[in-house]
């Protein structure tokens, strides 16, 4: 009876996650315009049309493209993408690319806090978009290589954590197993809170220097949570007694590695897994759950 209720709860959670993900995706594809002068997009690209004048152009999780002859009176920011400035663009304030590149064509004018203008019209290197690397196969291969590198680094970090703090990852795995609903809800709430915080820091020029610190903290938390997901997967797969946690963890990482190689669907599955892992570590850090860890 308890198993049936638990399965129903997990089914409800999966349905709720799907609905929320759909809503977030729909929201992310819509620009947020403030008096037609501030354009913000979460989870997509921002495009300022040719000869258009705006105050801020901010893309979170995409590229910020400023069209030919356009003007940005304050800042152009791309977080997780490239800041692309086409011919004749003028940016009176600063240009930032967090996790991406600044690609500027000749004739671009950028004025910062110092009021200087780039002499060669270029800051950073030309990105892959300018080298013609746009084919699905090449992007898939590069993405897969980056994914496998992340898995390898995560496996090393996870093994070190298991050797250093043997009970830490098992606690996260127990939270995911015993409190799946709480893990999912905490993960969703945490992700939404991070998005709101990033938007507030981005709009506030004083908060822009804090963005790397926020990204680092969120990245570490999400990484550790995903390591807990890997151990949970390994425990579900290797149920035979006497299996070492390291063996279970490495098997779980292998499963995540294979899932991540599936185009499109693999990324969606890993995103949901990251939400659960992120929520599990948040619930543990805030002391909201007390899992029972079986030795």
Describe the structure.
The chain is α/β, with parallel strands linked by helices. It has 2 domains: 32-131; 135-285, no CATH class. The chain contains 7 helices and 11 strands. The protein has helices at residues 2-28, 136-164, 168-178, 180-203, 211-237, 245-260, 265-285; strands spanning 32-34, 38-42, 46-48, 53-60, 64-66, 71-79, 83-85, 90-91, 95-98, 102-104, 109-110. Strands 1, 2, 4, 6, 8, 9 and 11 form a 7-stranded mixed beta sheet that branches. It has a 4-stranded parallel beta sheet with strand order 3-5-7-10, with no helix packed on it. Helix 3 (168-178) packs across helix 5, helix 3 (168-178) packs across helix 7 and helix 4 (180-203) crosses helix 7. The radius of gyration is 22 Å and the shape is elongated. The two termini are 26 Å apart.
Mean pLDDT: 75
Radius of gyration: 22 Å
Number of distinct helices: 7
The total strand number stands at 11
What number of domains? 2
Q: What share of the residues does DSSP label as strand, in percent? A: 15-25%
Level of helix content?
40-55%
The succession of helices and strands, N to C, reads HEEEEEEEEEEEHHHHHH
In short:
The chain is an alpha/beta fold and 295 residues long.
Characteristics of this structure?
295 residues, 4-stranded parallel β-sheet, 7-stranded mixed β-sheet, alpha/beta, 2 domains
Task: Annotate the secondary structure layout.
Layout: H1 2-28, E1 32-34, E2 38-42, E3 46-48, E4 53-60, E5 64-66, E6 71-79, E7 83-85, E8 90-91, E9 95-98, E10 102-104, E11 109-110, H2 136-164, H3 168-178, H4 180-203, H5 211-237, H6 245-260, H7 265-285
Parallel strand pairs: 2-4, 3-5, 4-6, 5-7, 6-8, 6-9, 7-10, 8-11
Antiparallel strand pairs: 1-2
Helix pairs in contact: 1-4, 2-6, 3-5, 3-7, 4-7, 5-6, 5-7, 6-7
